[in-house]
């Protein structure tokens, strides 16, 4: 399960809408549990540096490392990542599965058409599995 504060959910949805037609992306920080309940406490929007940002997302590695340092300074862990699908689908794409590199982390996807916010855990051996999201 992923606990996602309503304020964070609203911010990543607004970022997705504001960034359309490009995919938006960012990092989620908080309390990480690889098999149970992870809790998002912070979010860090980043610039999408993918070669084709309308259909892909990529976080600059240097910016990602800087965010990881900020998380550590705050006593938080990497809970996962988020990105948008401006024109769907409301689930991980084949590209998302091929590019996933953080086992057991949450991957939140904001689909704008159709509108849906969902989360999946990426399991190294089994791919993505949908997880429950509690908005608080």
What general outline do the C-alpha atoms trace? globular
Order of helices and strands: EHEEHEHEEEE
| Alpha carbon gap, first and last residue | 13 Å
Provide a count of the helices.
3
Uncertain stretches of 5 or more adjacent residues: none
Identify the strand order in the major beta sheet. 7-6-5-4-2-3-1-8
Task: Provide the structure class.
Answer: alpha/beta
Q: Give the DSSP E fraction (strand runs of 2 or more residues).
A: 35-45%
Mean pLDDT: 95
Element layout with pairings:
Blueprint: E1 2-4, H1 6-19, E2 25-31, E3 38-46, H2 61-73, E4 77-85, H3 94-99, E5 106-112, E6 115-123, E7 127-131, E8 133-135
Commentary on this structure:
By secondary structure, the protein is of the alpha/beta class. It has helices at residues 6-19, 61-73, 94-99, and strands at residues 2-4, 25-31, 38-46, 77-85, 106-112, 115-123, 127-131, 133-135. It has an eight-stranded mixed sheet with strand order 7-6-5-4-2-3-1-8. The longest helix has 14 residues, at 6-19. The mean pLDDT is 95.
Short synopsis of the structure:
Helices cover 24% and strands 38% of the residues.
Please name the defining characteristics of this protein.
136 residues, alpha/beta, 3 helices, 8 strands, 38% strand
